[in-house]
Amino acid sequence: MNSHERDEQRVSAEENQEQPDQSGKVSRRDVLSMIGIAGVTAAAGGLGLIASTGTAEAKGNGGLDHQQLINRNSPGSHPATAISYVAPNGSVNTVQDLSNSANTTMGATLIGRSTVTVNALADLISTPTAGNHHVSVRGYYNGDNQGGGLFYWDAGRAKNLHNGGTIISPTVPWNGQKSTLAAFLAGTGETQSSGAGCWIRIVESSISAAAFGASEGQDITLPMQAASDAAAELSVPMIGGISGILSGDLLLPKVFDGAGARYTGGRLIIRTTKFPDVHNFYCDTLMAQAVWHSNIRSIECDKFIVDGYSLDWGTFWNKFENIRAGQIILDCQAQAVNSNEFLKCNGNKPDVYGLLITDNGLPGATSESHGNNFIGCDFSVSLGIHNATAVHQQNTLTNCYLERGARINGNFLILGMNHDSNSPPAVSPYSHVIGMTQHIPSSRGDMFSVSLQNAAIGGDWSVRDVNNKPPAFSATFGSAGVVPLNTNTPYGYKAVYGGSGNGAFQYIEINFEVDTQEFSSTLWLYCPNGNMPVAIMVIDVASGAESYRDINLYDFGNHFHLLRVSGKLTGTAGKIRLLATAGTSSAFTMYLGSVFISAYKGAPLPYHSLSASPVETIVCGASEVKRGIKNVPNSIGTHVDVTVTFGAAFTTMPAFTYSLLPGSSYLGNLTKSELINISSQGATIRIYFATNWSGDLHWQAI
User: Fold this and answer.
1) According to DSSP H, which parts of 53-205 are helical?
2) Contact in structure between 488 and 556 (CB atoms under 8 Å)
3) How many CB atoms within 10 Å of residue 400?
4) Closest CA to 28 of 51, 54, 2, 5
5) Residue 678 class from Cβ within 10 Å (0-12 exposed, 13-18 middle, 19+ buried)?
6) Distance (Å, rounded) from C-alpha 310 to C-alpha 333?
7) pTM beyond 0.85
8) Which domains does the chain have, with CATH numbers?
9) Where are the transmembrane segments (predicted)?
10) pLDDT tens digits for 196-236?
11) Would you tell me how many other CB atoms lie within 10 Å of the CB of residue 413?
């Protein structure tokens, strides 16, 4: 017994139950029994409606026997499957036919928000548009379950907005074949270009490439780009998921999940956007052009290019994580590529640089690449890493691997690295190498790029002029001079340069020269009265430009303060100016202790915990040095012994050197000299001469 037979038995049972006396009331079955089927039809005709009931005959009580229906198990054989009306001209028009397989909307148009199912997107072209129903498309292509979705009719949507995926104009012809997809996506052949009325895909959380006809193993450039454009317009993520061929560039939307797809040929590009999120696919070439604050991760590619791209943008503050590439290129020709983080990325392709930073030999006004941090990256097997930019910029490698022939060349600050080369990294003189792995004897150890030559002559008191001060020091106030101290200094020499005075724009100045046109410096100031500089200036002598530095001093104690100053010049000569007063005349006290200026990115700090009195003891490059000039009065005979006593004993036996400068009246009298005694406390030199001799003994102990 089928469901219709059970329903008829239930109705019959209900109406055969004993009922209270209802005089004057007639049941619906009694009506049918009395007037018969013909009467029903006539009555319905009077109302303008006809209920089509199939073919049957009335039984004795007017009931309908399902077993006697003709073709009772065929579509259209059951009562009330269709509703029609008779027009004034006598024609019969059907408005509902739930069993009509040729026109599925004959039922759906009367059932609010019902759904009609079609096999493929091309079926939307012939699907009737009347009513408020939805159309469920099984797949983009016939026999395929990918790219389908739920559509509704929008009579007001302009047909020229057709895109072949989310907006479908039924007046754009298409045969549903992959070979004609490009024309369909482009809306080629639209017969009502100025009209309105389109099917609209319901997009809830994302859009897929399959929704625009992308299919596995095919050229998917056009449907991928169409899906990307739609995702950008709707502000939803795009899902890839379809592997295929790219015959050109593909601009990705702001959020893209490749869903493990593999793209061969072409380039995938993320361009001029902030906060993009792109991940999970394979491609030949991936480009990040002018992006900020991106999260690009879990991608495998042959080449990954990070490009400044636009003069108005540049590429800054991005995080690139778990990108396994053959080569990583930072291209800063058009604009800067700065302050990006590369975390656990690879560049392992043989015969090319695994990491290349370049301006392509054509540097522009803003061609710079610095502050990029490579953490836990591996560039083994490749040629290594190379910073080929014209502008010397610093980038950092932290705990990276360069093995099996990979080399390092250029401006890189290295903070931990595994490197199996038989020589240390070839970094620039502006860079440092710290924390190389210890199991490779030929390349392990730390290397600091600093200069042992002080660009401020005598800034550490190793050289003094006729006024017993470093030649690099000068001041505007006449009272400035060398002042001995009775206390230890952090730079090892018991003296300072400066004094007290009164006036406006008074300063101490340090003169220096650096052939690199940039400098780093450390300065010790002595401020016994608590008077700090009111301003700190750097003067570029070549251009005359003046720039100010923050007054940021480290308090070392005992009135000593450490100041660090660095900068870039247009020429070789520069000045550091410590202003004691500004535009208003006032009293001041200012002293400068010691200065070391380096032409590189690291400046030695003049420091020594033990100090000795002026003239005899200084500190140079953190090594204790004692120097002096001892006058030898007129001596008669064959020789004289001259003893030099060190102000403070050396902790180990020093190396001692000397030279003799005879007085003008004793030239030619000297025959020879020799060091006859040396200890940690002093030395004795024997001077041999004919008749007599007088002059100066210049000495140095280190």
Assistant:
1) 105-108, 181-186
2) no
3) 27
4) 51
5) middle
6) 10
7) no
8) 88-202 (no CATH), 267-441 (no CATH), 473-598 (2.60.120.260), 616-701 (2.60.40.2080)
9) 31-51
10) 999 999 999 999 999 999 999 999 999 999 999 999 999 99
11) 19
